[in-house]
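Review box. Two proteins, two foldings.
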Amino acid sequence: MNKKKVLNKQNGITLVALVITIVILIILASVTLSATIGENGLIKKAQEAKDRTTNAIKAEEEEMNKLEQELDTIIDNSVNSHIWNRSGHYVICSHCDLKFEIGKSIINYKTKLSENKVEITPEKSGYIEKQVLIQEQDISWLVLGIADENKDGINESLLITTDKPVNNIILYGATGYLYGVDELNRVCKELYSSDIESARSISIEDINEVLKYEPEGGTYTTDGAVTWQTTGNFTTKLKELSIWNTIKSVGTKTPDGINTEEALGEYVLNGYLYRENGEYLICNINKNDTRYPIKEIKNELELIVGAQNDFQYLVASRGGYVAHSMYSIGIANVSNGGISNCGDLFGNTGLEKQIEAKLRPVVSLKQIP
C-alpha cells in the first residue's frame, strides 16, 4: 500500500515537471521568434545591415564615377580647351595655335532644326499683334570676339555671330522696354541654339569689346540736343542732375507704372551714343579722327554696322538719356552706322514709341566645330 502511494507521488511530480518544461519551452520559443522576426528582430536587422552595405557600395560607386568624370573633364580641358587672346584683327589660341580674323573667318556652326519657330506675345513686346519668327537658313557665322565667361582671367570662349541681322521684331512702349531684353535673348536662344551651345542676343558690351570702345558715361543736354554732356559714370540718378527740377516739371511717368517723382528720380542716367567730346566715333564724319582711327577697326566696324552702314538691329541692353527736360529710355540698337544703348521707347511724359528692327544672335563656343 505504501509502495503504491510512493509511485503515484513520483508520477505526479514527473507530470508537473513536464508541464513546466513545456511552458518554459513555449516561452523560449516565443522569445526566440520575437528576437528573430519581430519589429527589431535579427532578420530585420540583418536586412537593414544588408541595405546599408548596398547603399554604401552604391554611394562609393557614384563617388568613383563622379571622380572619374571630373578626371575626364580635366584631361579633356587640358587637351581640347582654348586660351584665346586678341591681336589686332585676330583672335589666337595660345594652346593650339588656332587663328581667326574678326568679322572675316567663318565658323561651321549648325543650329538645330527641330525648333525653328518662336512666338512673341503682345504682353511681352507691347506691340498689338502676336509676332511669329522662323529660323533663317541663309546665314553664315563669323568670329565676333572672345570672352572670359568663367571670370577666371582666361578667355576660354570664342564668340560668333551671324554675317547679317536676321528676322524682324517690333517692340513698343513701356512693355517693350521692360521685357525687350529678355525677349531678344529668348528668341535668339530658341531659334539659333545648337544641340550643344546656347545662343543669345548681341549686347552693347559685345559691341564695345569688339570695337574697343569705352564710353565716358551717361549723356544729357541742358539745351535741347545742341550740346551733349556726360556724367562721367553710369550711376548718376536723375534726381542728382542739375536739371532735375526741369525734368520732373514736364512729367514723372515711369515704365513700371509707379509714376511718382520719387520713383522717377531713382532712375539712372546710363544711356550713351558712340561719341567723344561731342564728336561721333562711329560714322563717316569721323574717319580721320586720330584719337580713334576708323581704319584700324575696319573689319570689326563692318561686322557691327555693315559695309554700307546698312545694318539695323536691336541689342539686348537698356539705357536712358536726358535731352533738356525729356528723359527717354529704351533698347540699344544699331542703325544707319550709329550705335546707341538707349533707343527711344518710353519717356517721362508718358510718350510711347515703337522700334522695329532685326536681331543679331551670338553663340559662345568652348569647342570649335
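Next protein.
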Amino acid sequence: MKTYTTKGVLPNVRTAVRHGACMCAVLCLAGFVQPNTAAADAAAICPGDRLDNRVFEHDNLSSMVQVQQDGRIRVPLCGWVEAAGKRAGELAETLSARYKQANIERAFVTVQITAYGPRTVYVIGEVLEGGKSIEITPPAALTVTQAVSAAGGFKDTADLRHVLVRRTSSSGEVMEIPVDVLAIISGRKKASDPVLQVGDTVVIPRSKPVYVNGEVNTPGVYYVGTHSALRCSEILGKAGGITDTANRTRVMVFRRTQDAGDTDLLEVDMDAVFSGDFAQDIKVLPGDMVVVSRRLKIYVFGEVGTPGAVDLEPGLKLTAFQAITLSGGFTAYAAEGSVLRVRGDKKSVIDLRKPYRKGVENADPELMPGDILFVPGSIW
C-alpha cells in the first residue's frame, strides 16, 4: 500500500507536519521518492479500487471513495473525475488542479489506494490450463512468460513464435501485440518479455499440422510444436511406421518457403538413417508434408478433391491430367498452371490449364510408377 502526493504548493513544512502530514509526503514533493515503473504500472488505479483522498487543512473535502466500473469517482466540489488508468500520484495532481479551479487555495492532496479491486489477465490456447484467469497482485508486475507459467505451461503443440497479446484501449480499439516467446526462452538478444496490463488476453496458437501420407500404417495429420521439433524418423513413428511396400530410400518432405511461397523438396534416405547416418534424419517443421512413396503407385497431393495414391494398373498408361481427374479433379483454389511433378531426383512444372490444346507437345505428359504430382494453391 503506497501513498502518493501532489507536487502542488505546500504552504509551510512545519504547518504540514503540525497538521499530521507524514515525512514521506514531503519527500514525494521534493522528488526524492519515485516508485518503480513496472510496479507503478501494475498499481495503476482500476475499477473496484478503494481510495482515501485527503485534502490537508480541508477535512470537509477529504473522502473515501470506490472507483466505479466506468473508471470514475465522485469527489466533493469536483464532481465526477476520471481515475482508472492513473497512478495515485497522478490522480492527486488532477484533484489539486480541480480544487484550484474551485477557488480552494493551497489544496494539498494525497491519494492512497486502501484496497485493490480485481486485476485480471487471461491466458487461452495451447497451455495446459487453457482459459485461465490470473490475478495481478500489486505492486508486482506480470509478464507474458509468467502468465503462461501460471497457466500450467505450454503444450507440445504450441506455436511459440506467434504468441499474441490482445489489449483493448480506452477508446475500445483492440490491439494485437506479437510476442516471440521462443526467442525469449532461448535467451536471444533484443527479445523482450512484455509486461501485461489489466484486461490483457494472452493467446497461444496451435502450430501448423504436419501431413503424413503414402506408405505408412496410419497416415494423417500430426502436430509438432515449435519448441519440440521432431525428426523425420520420429514423425514416421507417430504415423505407425512405414509399410513393407514403401520406398525406404526416398522419403520426401515438401516444405513451403516463407518468402516466395514456393515449395521445396527435401529427401530422406531412411535406410541410411537406420544404418547410423543420423545427419540424413532432418527436422520436420510445422506445415510440412511427408510423403512415403511406392513404385507401383502414382501420388497426387495438394489442391485436388481426394489427395492420395492412385494405383497404376500393369500395362495402363496414365497422364498427369488423368491422374488428377482420378483424384477428384482440381479444387477451386488449385494453381492448374503450376503443377509440380517429382520423378527421381528431378522436378518439373506442368501447365494443365489446357492440357489438350493444339500446337503444344507434351502438355499432358505420361506418368511413371513412383511419380508424384503436387498441385499448389493459389488465391487468384
